[in-house]
Amino acid sequence: MDDFRAGVAVVGVALLLSGCTGSPEPGVVSPSPTASASAAASGADPWDGPVTADVDVVAQELPVPWGMAQLPGDRFLVTMRDDATLAVVHPSGDVEPVDGSEGPQQLVDQTVADGEGGLLGVAVEPEDSGPLFTVFLYRTGERDNAVLRAELDLDGMGLRDLTTILDGIPRSSNHNGGRIAFGPDGYLYVATGDAGDPANAQDPESLGGKILRITPDGEPAPGNPDPGSPVWSMGHRNVQGLGWDPSGRMFASEFGQDRLDELNVIEPGANYGWPDVEGPGESAGDQAGFRDPVVWWPTSEASPSGIAVTEEGVYLASLRGERLWRVPLLGGPSAVADGESPGFGEPHALLEGEFGRLRAVRAGSAGELYVLTNNTDGRGEPMIEDGRPVDDRLLRLGLTPVE
Predict the structure, then answer these.
(1) Residue 128 lies in a domain
(2) Is residue 351 part of a domain?
(3) Which end of the chain offers a freer environment for a tag, N or C, measured as fewer CB atoms within 10 Å?
C-alpha cells in the first residue's frame, strides 16, 4: 500500500544537495543549469522562492473524492472512488450529482471499488464549451482497469453513451494508477500502475507500469515510440499525477516503494527504472539507461498523487505526507521566452498537517489552486467540526510569494 510504507531513506542528493546524508531531505537535479543559474542569480522573480497560501473551503462532505476535471466557470467535475459516482462542484460550494440518463447506473454496475481501485481519473475534451461535454473516465472493473468515454449534459446533469475505448490495463487492490489528462498535443495520456506485479513495468507488452498516449477513440496516438502501441513511457511503479509546463515539458509524480517518491520529466520511449531502480543516482540505473527523477522525497514526506503545473511551479498533492509540495520553476515565463526549459528550485511544503491527506490539485483560471483532500478513503482520519465529519473537502488556495 503506497502511503502506509515503513522506512525512512537516507538520501544522497546530487547537485544542489550533493553529499548530504543522515537526515531525510528532498533532492533536486536541474536539467537546465543555464536557466536555473541565471534565474537564481538575478533574484528578479519573487516566484523563484517560497510562497504562502490563503485557504478557503469551497465544498465539504465529499465521499472519497479522487479525480477532478475543470469545467467553464471554475466548476469541477469530481469522481467519487468508492461510490463510482460523479458530481459537479460549483464555486459557490453547491454540489450537484450527475444522476440523469442511463450512464450513471452503467458506471456503477461496471466499477469495482477494491482497495485503491474504483472510479479514479477524469478528463474533459479541452475544445468543448458546453452544455454538452465529452468526458473520459478511468475505472477499475472485475478483470481490468479501463478508460471510458461518455457524453455529459450539464443542462440535465446526465451521462450517456458510456463506451469503453481502452481496456486490458492490469488491475489489483493496489497500484492502479488512474490519472488521465489531455496533453498540449490534444491526445489523452493515461497513467497506470504495476498492479502489484513489478514485472509489468518492464514488460513492453503489458499496459501496467506505463504512461499511455491515445486518441479520443482509444487508438495509439500518432508519433508514439511504437506506432502500434499506446505506450509512451515505461518502468513506472504507480503514476498518479500528470502535467505540462509552459515549455511543453511533461511531468509525472510517482509513488516509490519504501525509499523515495519521485517527480519525473517524461520523454517518449524512456524507461524510468522500476523495479530495478528507485530514486536517483544508482549505478545499475545509469548502466541500463534508466531516467533519474528530477526531484525526490522520502516516502514518509510525500506519497504524491495528483499534480498541477503552472508558470511558476509544480505542485504535488501528498497523501502520507499530508502536505502540498511546491517545486519552483526558476525564471518561469522569462526562461520559456528565452527558449529555455525552467530549472528547479528548492522544494517547500504548503498546508503541512493542516488538512490531512491530499489527493488532487488543479490550477484555477485566475492563478489560484484547487485541492481535494482524501481523509475518507479508509486510511485517513476525517476531521470533525461541531460533532460531525466535514471531510472530504475541496479547497481553494490563493498564492503569494514570500517577500
Answers:
(1) yes
(2) yes
(3) C
